[in-house]
Amino acid sequence: MKHEDRHIELEGRQVAYRLKRSSRRTIGLKIDSDGLTITLPRLAPAREAERVMRDRADWILPRLDRHAARRRPALTGADGGQVGYLGERLRLTVIPHARPRTAVSVEGGALIVRVDERLSGELRDATVLRAVKRWRKEQAAKLMTPRIAYHAEALGQPVPPVKVREQASRWGSCASDGTIRMNARLIAFDPDLIDYVCAHEACHLIEMNHSQRFYALMDQILPRHKALRRTLRDAVMPGDDY
Length: 242
Known about the structure:
Elements: E1 3-10, E2 13-22, E3 28-32, E4 35-41, H1 46-55, H2 57-70, E5 82-85, E6 88-97, E7 103-107, E8 110-116, H3 121-154, E9 162-165, E10 172-174, E11 180-183, H4 191-203, H5 212-221, H6 225-234
Parallel strand pairs: 2-4, 6-8, 9-11
Antiparallel strand pairs: 1-2, 3-4, 5-6, 7-8, 10-11
């Protein structure tokens, strides 16, 4: 989806935002690690975005401040970084070893990455970063795939194919062919929040929209979904922000 990067003055502050267009009929506001995004219906004038942002300035500004205060440096693969995992922050500890293969493990409160002792500098950091991302994707798939299967079966649906990858914004999606795509970055959050997204996408196997029927399904399989949705909406990715 194409977007425009713009600025607006809200209560005397210059605020950067991303303007997107979609086929949706309503205006959407989202604040995450990428900043403020507003989504307009395709034919709505851009001034509608500005009107909504000024009307919601008291909601937007505190959340932007919260993200800015808690945002951490991007993970580079260097020793000492922090990696979000199941609601905690693991300290990245890089240990050289005499093997060409990189190995990743959780030990105590640390994420240990053992890397070829012949590597150094930017090459070593890049190797470590790739290993961490690969590990996070694997952990996400191990956790999310059975939870989606569980919720699908609770709804009387066949177990869908699940694909896990890193995505910039959406936590999950369900295609018309029943394939569910999940964001590997979710592995940074508390398991209850991850399970909420799994349940949400499983419900889309039956209802592709967010109608009353959809939320009735959510009530059925995850009664706490409203509270979890609010928590996830306001959450900031624990640890790094890559």
